[in-house]
Each structure stands twice: as C-alpha cells, then as structure tokens.
C-alpha cells in the first residue's frame, strides 16, 4: 500500500548513519545487497540494491560527480522505510567503481555516453531481475545530466523522474567560445605532457575544506560525516576534473539543451536556490523546454539537497516521495 502524504517518515541529522548505533547503520549491514558488473570497456561498476517487504515502487538513484552510494545511506534508508525499493550504482571513475587513469583521483570520463551505457546496462541486466514493475528515477547533479541523457535514449524507461540540482550548466558560467578555448588549451596541455589525461587548470588531487568554507551543505553533521567516510576509506577519494571530463561534460550539456523539448517523462526538478556549483540560469532555461516538468526552487539551499540541513533535506525527500507516489496512482 502506498503511503499518504501525512505518513512519510524522514530521518533527521541525529538519527541517520552519523550515529554509530543508528538504525540506518544496522539497515545497511542487514538489508542492502552489493555487487559489481563489467561496464563499457570492462570497467568494474559497483552497485547496490534493497527491496523492502512492502515495496510499492522502485527508484533508480544516480549520484553526482566525486560521489559514492555509500554517501547516500541515509537517503536509501529513508526511501526503504517508506516502501521504495532502491537500485543505485557508482559511476565509472569514482566511488567503489573502477578507475581509468593512473592517478586514481582524477575526475575522468571519455564520453558521457559511457556513463549512460553503464546505467542502462545496470537496469537492463540487473535491476529488472529483481523488479518487474515500472521504475522511477532520482538523480543529483551530474547524475541529473546522465539520467536526462538516458531519457533521450530510452524515453519510456522511467515512469517519472526527480532531478535534484541537475547539472545542465556549471559555474562559472562562461560563454561557449571562451569555454571551448580553455578546454582546447587544457587538452593541448595534456598532449604536450604526453599524458592521456591531466587535471584541468586550477584542479588537483583531493583536498579537505573546512566546513565554514564549503558551498555544498548547511549541515555540519552531514558534512563531517562525509569527510569521515573519505578519511576512513581513502580509495573513495576523488579530486578535480580533467580537461577530458570537462570537454565531455560540455558536450553532454549541449546535447541536453539542444534536445530538451524531446523530454516527455513526468519530472520534478528541484533547484537549489543558493547553488554555487550549478549554473541555475541555464538549468532554468533547459527545464522549461521539457514537455512535462515541474520546476521548484528550494530557496536558500546549497547544492546538495539530499545532504542538506534537515529543513531542506526533509522538504526535498517529502516532495520527491509524494511526486513518485502520484505518478504511480
């Protein structure tokens, strides 16, 4: 039975995985399954899934750049407790998935289509083994770009989609001509160094920033929890982007904007009102070309809506779960 709006349950900062004896920690150990499959070019892709006994619907969760599904234990826990099955993966080159560069901290991908191919392979060869009903999509940031590209490829794959702070443009928002010049210069720098990949100008290996300087979340508890995860599991760390990743990202964002009117899937787009990572002007322009999208600005929120302080995060999850539920009714 699908929950009513009044019965949704969402954990707070002091109830999630941030507490070592929390229900969320026990849930992950007892109820979440993990595996690895071979993605494009043989890159190992890590994934996780969980299905509650009373599951009424299922969500494919796509995370953002540098992230891992281990960062989303709280989100998966909350969705599970509200009757949603969750299937998620770590994108190639990050998290628990395989790297493609000698420097394992480089943010690298050859083409965004590789991300899309991995996600579609995951769904077609793994998700449908365990879930035979319609699927919904939930994405954050870069995951939003990947999910939208997947919808362009497979328009009827998902019954509905929620995009949180989708990456349809990135800051600083540069004119295309200038962006292309800088990207070409970065690629040329890699060639001159005789490297297949190299950090873009100003980018480098993983660095820890104090909470007061972060622009991702207002939640000190969640921010420190994420830092602890990367301190304990150093293999998860990812640094800045390469010129190759940036070139692929710009190509992907142009593809999305140029084909936005083809997106017909019912969609809720939640935009972070105080996002310092995403170009919200371009995001707004793209979303308003979608055929069936509700665009909601979460005033004052930083980029990571699903890891924000309780007021922003709870609003995001409650709004998302209600949207998913209504799409299945």
Task: Walk me through what this model shows.
The protein has 329 residues and is of the alpha/beta class. It has a single domain, classed as 3-Layer(aba) Sandwich (Rossmann fold), CATH 3.40.50.1820. Helix content is 37%, strand content 15%. The protein has helices at residues 23-31, 73-81, 112-130, 142-153, 176-192, 220-232, 243-258, 280-287, 310-328; strands spanning 33-38, 44-50, 57-62, 84-89, 135-140, 158-164, 267-272, 293-298. It has an 8-stranded mixed sheet, sandwiched between helices. Helix 4 links the parallel strand 5 and strand 6 (158-164). Helix 5 (176-192) runs antiparallel to helix 7. The model has no long low-confidence stretch (mean pLDDT 93).
Beta-strand portion reads: 15-25%
Summarize the amount of helix as a percent range: 25-40%
Radius of gyration: 19 Å
Main beta sheet? 8 strands, mixed
CATH architecture: 3-Layer(aba) Sandwich
Q: Write down the CATH topology.
A: Rossmann fold
Question: Widest sheet: strand order?
Answer: 1-2-4-3-5-6-7-8
């Amino acid at each position: 039975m699908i929950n009513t709006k009044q019965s949704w349950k969402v954990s707070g900062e002091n109830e999630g995985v941030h507490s070592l004896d929390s229900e969320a920690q026990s849930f992950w150990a007892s109820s979440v399954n993990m595996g690895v499959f071979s993605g494009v070019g043989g890159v190992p892709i890590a994934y996780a899934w969980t299905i509650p006994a009373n599951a009424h619907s299922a969500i494919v969760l796509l995370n953002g750049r540098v992230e891992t599904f281990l960062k989303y234990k709280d989100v998966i826990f909350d969705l599970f407790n509200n009757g949603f099955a969750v299937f998620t993966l770590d994108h190639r080159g990050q998290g628990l998935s395989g790297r493609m560069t000698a420097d394992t901290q480089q943010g690298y991908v050859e083409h965004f289509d590789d991300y899309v191919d991995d996600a579609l392979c995951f769904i077609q060869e793994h998700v449908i083994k365990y879930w035979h009903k319609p699927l919904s999509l939930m994405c954050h940031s870069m995951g939003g770009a990947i999910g939208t590209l997947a919808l362009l490829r497979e328009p009827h794959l998902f019954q509905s989609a929620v995009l949180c702070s989708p990456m349809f443009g990135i800051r600083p928002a540069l004119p295309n001509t200038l962006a292309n010049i800088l990207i070409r210069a970065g690629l040329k720098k890699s060639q001159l160094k005789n490297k297949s990949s190299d950090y873009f100008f100003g980018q480098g290996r993983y660095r820890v920033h104090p909470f007061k300087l972060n622009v991702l979340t207002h939640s000190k508890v969640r921010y420190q929890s994420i830092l602890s995860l990367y301190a304990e599991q150093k293999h998860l760390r990812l640094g800045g982007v390469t010129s190759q990743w940036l070139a692929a990202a710009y190509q992907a964002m142009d593809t999305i904007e140029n084909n936005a009117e083809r997106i017909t899937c019912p969609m809720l787009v939640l935009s972070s009102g105080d996002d310092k990572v995403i170009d919200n002007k371009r995001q707004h322009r793209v979303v308003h070309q979608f055929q069936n999208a509700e665009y909601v600005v979460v005033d004052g929120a930083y980029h990571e809506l699903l890891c924000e302080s309780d007021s922003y995060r709870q609003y995001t999850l409650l709004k998302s779960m209600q949207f998913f539920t209504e799409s299945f009714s």
